[in-house]
């Protein structure tokens, strides 16, 4: 049975909505929104809306605002809009059509006009969708066949070269990943999605020229002679010539062949001009060849070859970034560094088969010989007991729990909202029915969260909407990923727990938004004290904490407000003073001892006197607010103890801390990138334990030079990021020189003969923060080459 089309009616008049439903009759299902904001929220949650009937003149978000939102999210491609409005001026009609409406009907209207126009628009869009699907299927089939033929041809070369059978797939995947990272970083190369797809597909042909190279040279296990290496190098020219000849036979201007030709000929060129065959330099090398070159080097390092063992991800990354594999575009090196965890995941996926076979063999041996069954039985018993506890707690608090087995592809859902006999369902995850309680947007959000999890950070929390009793309810989804222990680690299970957060969020948001603190300030403060760790009133002008007596009069307490943070002077980033001056609400993250706190400062008036309401929440309690401070965020964030964002080796903050708390913001002041010089030689000569000790020594020396407000982050490997808020250019240069001198004077306790140094690049007052880091990174590499350490 076909479902009825769903029509969303957005009109602030209930009578108008009822009239439209009565005219259109029972052939449709209806959703109603009394203003623009409600209409947008319904379209955000639902993917089954067939048509929007929209009034233009509504309070708050009007119809034009709704159209702008739909245009921004490209919803107009899926949901046609008929405007039904009493507005008769030509300017409004023209404006509506410019924003993408399908039709415009003036009030008062005739019944037959509404019926026919709604039917016509629905039929037109249905035909367009069928035609789009037909064309898309044909294009996909053509592209699929092309890609299949390219893959077959490239794999012939690959297997002839005795490679792993995955090299071509790796190159394509890594090329796609690096290109997407590149377009987020810069628009220098003017690449769109079709360009990325074209380059990724063409990358499979990068080594097609090896088909003319003798097999005894391709598969030689030892070092090549100069003559043999010259023959190998010829594969770039040979492959390019093959594709050029093919272009003459098929179509010289075929985009795929043009891109493949550039990749074939120049994927061994290097940024500094020391590559081959044409010794191109910088952006003389086409960007397609630059990206494939970097992907090719990374995969060659991390793959087994007849002449070498595979390097692990961190070693390969360090070798490339240290210039041991030739010079690459600094922008692409930045993309490589920023994609580090995604690359690690891709490598883990490629090695999955080997690790899984090893684990399967081990388990089968244990079962056949019964050597480990007593221990395994004990472990199984503990697991079953833990499962019983989980079932019990979940049953007590209600909600939904699911267990997604990635190996079997099945998902088991326990829905404690359902009837007892219907609480458990098991289905194929690929079919999507097992997570039918999530809309498509939240399912994509779930998949993205799973792909970003790592063994070191296995837990994720995110907000989702779950429909209950015909209405969407906000839920908190907590995910825990379980990883294999054999070979390269891989995610094998995802455990999920959903709990209804609607009531809690509505109640707590009400305290900050709808409750007026001036009506009964004492009662208001008492209610907040049950939610936040610290609730206090502050006079930022005099730096005093205020007390509210029984008569509602404010008095000053002894001491200063900053004493709560163990500070002798005013906080460097006093948001209460800023919010007080603007009579608004602001927030920040503050650190005290070993804990991190989220602080909200809200301007209020008590008895006619303006003051700041400060609300402090310890982050480890998992209570969060959004970055505007206006309402409670929809999710809680568990597992955020200090150990989660402080590097245990160096004591600096982790990249994870930076990404979660700082990366998206702005910061006025200095930014410096710091790299330990010749660190690889320390590891190679003395071993990794001494290397770790050297990093600890460097970090301690740098920390000794910093202000309390400066933030040192271990950005990756032996590279550090230093943030210096509110520091002027002269001050930043002074810090850089102090850090350089301190590191040079430091000694590794176990090997005092070691002499350590760092290369530093700094910038000041560059916005946004991502651009400041990019510029500082470029200056750091330039200074490393020139031996300079200045701004």
UniProtKB/TrEMBL annotation:
Keywords tagged on the record: Phosphoprotein
Alphabetical list of Pfam families matching this protein: GGDEF, HD_5, Response_reg
Domain of life: Bacteria
HD-GYP domain sequence ranges: 142-352
Family matches, as SUPFAM superfamilies: CheY-like, HD-domain/PDEase-like, Nucleotide cyclase
Domain Response regulatory: 6-122
Domain GGDEF, first and last residues per copy: 667-791
Keyword set includes Zinc: no
GO biological process: phosphorelay signal transduction system
Family matches, as InterPro entries: CheY-like_superfamily, Cyclic_di-GMP/3'3'-cGAMP_PDE, GGDEF_dom, HD/PDEase_dom, HD_GYP_dom, Nucleotide_cyclase, Rev_trsase/Diguanyl_cyclase, Sig_transdc_resp-reg_receiver
Sites of 4-aspartylphosphate modification: 55
Function (record text): May play the central regulatory role in sporulation. It may be an element of the effector pathway responsible for the activation of sporulation genes in response to nutritional stress. Spo0A may act in concert with spo0H (a sigma factor) to control the expression of some genes that are critical to the sporulation process.
Protein's name according to its UniProt entry: Stage 0 sporulation protein A homolog
Source organism (scientific name): Faecalibacterium prausnitzii
Upper classification of the organism: Bacteria, Bacillati, Bacillota, Clostridia, Eubacteriales
């Amino acid at each position: 049975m076909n479902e009825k089309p769903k029509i969303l009616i957005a009109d602030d008049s209930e009578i108008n909505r009822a009239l439209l439903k009565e005219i259109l009759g029972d052939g449709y299902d209806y959703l109603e929104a009394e203003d623009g904001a409600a209409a947008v929220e319904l379209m955000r949650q639902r993917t089954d809306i067939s048509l929007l009937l929209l009034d233009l003149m509504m309070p708050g978000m009007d119809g034009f605002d709704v159209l702008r939102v739909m245009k921004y999210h490209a919803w107009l491609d899926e949901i046609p809009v008929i405007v039904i409005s009493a507005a008769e001026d030509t300017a409004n009609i023209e404006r509506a059509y410019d924003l993408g409406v399908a039709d415009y009907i003036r009030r008062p209207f005739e019944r037959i006009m509404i019926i026919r126009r709604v039917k016509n628009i629905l039929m037109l869009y249905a035909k367009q969708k069928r035609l789009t699907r037909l064309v898309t299927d044909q294009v996909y089939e053509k592209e699929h066949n092309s890609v299949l033929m390219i893959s077959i041809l490239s794999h012939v070369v690959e297997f002839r070269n005795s490679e792993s059978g995955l090299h071509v797939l790796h190159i394509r995947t890594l090329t796609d990943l690096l290109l997407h990272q590149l377009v987020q970083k810069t628009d220098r190369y003017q690449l769109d999605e079709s360009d990325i797809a074209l380059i990724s597909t063409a990358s499979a042909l990068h080594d097609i020229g090896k088909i003319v190279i003798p097999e005894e040279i391709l598969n030689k296990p030892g070092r090549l002679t100069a003559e043999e290496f010259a023959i190998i190098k010829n594969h770039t020219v040979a492959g390019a010539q093959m594709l050029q000849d093919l272009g003459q036979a098929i179509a010289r201007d075929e985009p795929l062949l043009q891109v493949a030709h550039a990749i074939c000929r120049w994927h061994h060129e290097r940024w500094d001009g020391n590559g081959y065959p044409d010794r191109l330099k910088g952006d003389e090398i086409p960007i397609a060849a630059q990206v494939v070159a970097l992907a090719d080097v990374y995969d060659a390092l991390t793959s087994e070859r007849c002449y070498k063992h595979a390097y692990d991800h961190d070693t390969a990354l360090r070798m490339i970034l240290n210039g041991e594999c030739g010079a690459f575009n600094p922008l692409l090196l930045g993309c490589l560094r920023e994609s580090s965890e995604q690359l690690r995941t891709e490598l883990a996926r490629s090695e999955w088969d080997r690790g899984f076979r090893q684990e399967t063999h081990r388990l089968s041996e244990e079962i056949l010989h019964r050597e480990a069954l007593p221990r395994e039985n004990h472990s199984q018993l503990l697991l079953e007991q833990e499962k019983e506890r989980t079932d019990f707690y979940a049953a007590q608090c209600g909600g939904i729990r699911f267990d997604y087995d990635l190996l079997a592809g099945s998902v088991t859902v326990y829905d404690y909202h359902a009837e007892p006999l219907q609480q458990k369902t098991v289905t194929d995850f690929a079919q999507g029915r097992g997570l039918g309680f999530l809309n498509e947007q939240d399912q994509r959000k779930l998949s993205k969260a799973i792909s970003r999890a790592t063994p070191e950070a296995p837990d994720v929390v995110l907000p989702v909407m779950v429909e209950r009793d015909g209405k969407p309810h906000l839920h908190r989804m907590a995910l825990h990923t379980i990883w294999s222990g054999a070979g390269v680690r891989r995610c094998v299970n995802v455990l999920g727990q959903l709990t209804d957060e609607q009531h809690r969020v509505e109640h707590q948001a009400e305290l900050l938004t709808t409750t007026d603190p001036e009506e009964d300030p004492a009662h208001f403060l008492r209610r907040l004290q049950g939610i936040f760790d610290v609730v206090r009133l502050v006079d930022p002008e005099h730096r005093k904490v205020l007390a509210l007596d029984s008569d509602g009069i404010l008095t000053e307490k002894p001491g200063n407000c900053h004493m709560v943070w163990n500070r002798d002077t005013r906080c460097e980033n006093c948001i209460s003073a800023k919010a007080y001056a603007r009579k608004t609400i602001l927030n920040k993250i503050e650190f005290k001892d070993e804990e991190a706190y989220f602080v909200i400062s809200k301007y209020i008036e008590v008895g006619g006197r303006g003051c700041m309401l400060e609300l402090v929440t310890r982050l480890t309690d998992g209570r969060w607010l959004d970055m505007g401070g206006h309402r409670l965020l929809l999710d809680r964030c568990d597992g955020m103890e200090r150990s989660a964002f402080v590097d245990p080796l160096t004591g600096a903050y982790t990249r994870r801390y930076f990404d979660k708390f700082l990366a998206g913001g702005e910061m006025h002041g200095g930014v410096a990138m710091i790299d330990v010089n010749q660190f690889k030689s320390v590891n190679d000569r003395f071993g990794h334990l001494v290397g770790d000790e050297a990093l600890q020594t460097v970090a301690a020396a740098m920390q000794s030079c910093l202000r309390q407000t400066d933030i040192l982050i271990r950005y990756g490997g032996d590279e550090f990021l230093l943030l210096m808020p509110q520091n002027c250019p002269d001050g930043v240069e002074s810090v850089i020189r102090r850090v350089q001198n301190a590191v040079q004077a430091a000694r590794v306790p176990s090997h005092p003969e070691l002499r350590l140094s760092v290369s530093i690049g700094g910038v000041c007052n560059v916005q946004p923060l991502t651009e400041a880091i990019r510029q500082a990174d470029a200056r750091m590499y330039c200074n490393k080459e020139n031996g300079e350490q200045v701004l």
